[in-house]
Design brief:
The chain has 303 residues and is mainly β. The chain is built from 1 helix and 24 strands.
Length: 303
């Protein structure tokens, strides 16, 4: 009992200081509820969030300093039932987000946490809903790359003139690595399946490097590492199984380095265990002399 009382005495100051949770601000007065879609902490400790309410004036982007008076709407997007926002994306001093609704002309918005600093970036052909809306966004090469519904790849530098479509029929882009000013990514096309692509942020510099497995199945490439402006990856060309490949960002410079396990059997290279070093790339692989599950050998390539 004495020990329990001593513990209570120690914790009492914390209980006294603790505050009972309370509603920060009732954005949907009455019995209706508010749906907070995303939250993002600003450098000044204010919090950005988007909210869907039952009101045409209170659904939109908000900023809060943790107080009721300091919780203010930055931009209203009309009927909040259709508000759909992606994650907040910091870029060049502002935070970008997809705030597409059937009531907004453009889906790409940005804010610095103030009403005056909240506006949209109009991109020709990119609309707020349907097959021309935004699915995902990410930043590479000091550009925002946008995956649009309808399997389109877009780019933006935060201006309307610097925002445009890079390629069509590019589904589920998975951004892998940047080498010498080139962003490499895997993407799925209705014609070639999943293959390795590249972009430098221009239309001319965005293309699939090679249809390694001809047809719609795809070679399903996986990035292993980089060395000397080369990107190393595994891919299956249907003939040699999954083996180590390299690319210098050109079609002619994209090829298999060695059929380690001759024939259609894969050499079972694990991209997670590959290591980029100062002189090349090291990786585990199996050849025809090491067919057991645990019989791997250490391999090396400088490209």
């Amino acid at each position: 009992m004495k020990n329990n009382l001593s513990l209570l005495a120690l914790l009492l100051p914390f209980f006294i200081k603790a505050q009972v949770p309370s509603i920060l601000k009732d954005l949907s007065p009455g019995s209706a509820s508010t749906t907070v879609v995303q939250l993002y902490a600003m450098p000044n400790n204010d919090v950005l969030f988007s909210a869907s309410t039952n009101s045409s004036t209170t659904s939109g982007i908000y900023v809060s300093d943790g107080s009721t008076a300091g919780t203010q709407i930055l931009k209203s997007f009309g009927n909040g039932k259709n508000l759909s926002t992606s994650s907040f994306l910091p870029y060049n001093g502002k935070v970008y987000l997809n705030a597409g609704t059937s009531y907004t002309a453009a889906p790409l918005w940005r804010t610095d946490g103030t009403t005056a600093g909240t506006d949209s970036v109009l991109i020709q052909g990119l609309t707020s809903a349907g097959l021309n809306g935004i699915r995902t966004m990410t930043v590479f090469l000091n550009l925002i790359f946008i995956e649009g519904y309808g399997n389109k790849l877009w780019r933006s530098n935060g201006t309307s003139s610097g925002s445009y479509s890079l390629a069509a029929d590019v589904g589920n882009p998975f951004y892998r690595d940047t080498v010498n000013g080139v962003l490499y990514f895997t993407a799925t096309s209705s014609v070639t399946g999943t293959e390795l692509w590249r972009t430098d942020g221009t239309v001319a510099g965005t293309f699939m490097l090679k249809d390694i497995w001809p047809g719609t199945l795809g070679s399903n490439p996986s990035i292993c590492g980089r060395y000397n402006n080369l990107l190393f990856f595994t891919a299956d060309n249907q003939v040699n199984g999954s083996e180590m490949w390299r690319t210098d960002g050109t079609t002619n410079g994209t090829y298999m380095l060695k059929d380690i396990y001759p024939g259609a059997i894969s050499s079972a290279i694990s991209p997670q265990l590959a290591w980029s070093a100062a002189n090349g790339i090291y990786f585990n692989a199996k050849d025809f002399q090491n067919t057991q599950q645990t019989n791997y050998e250490l391999w090396f390539s400088d490209g």
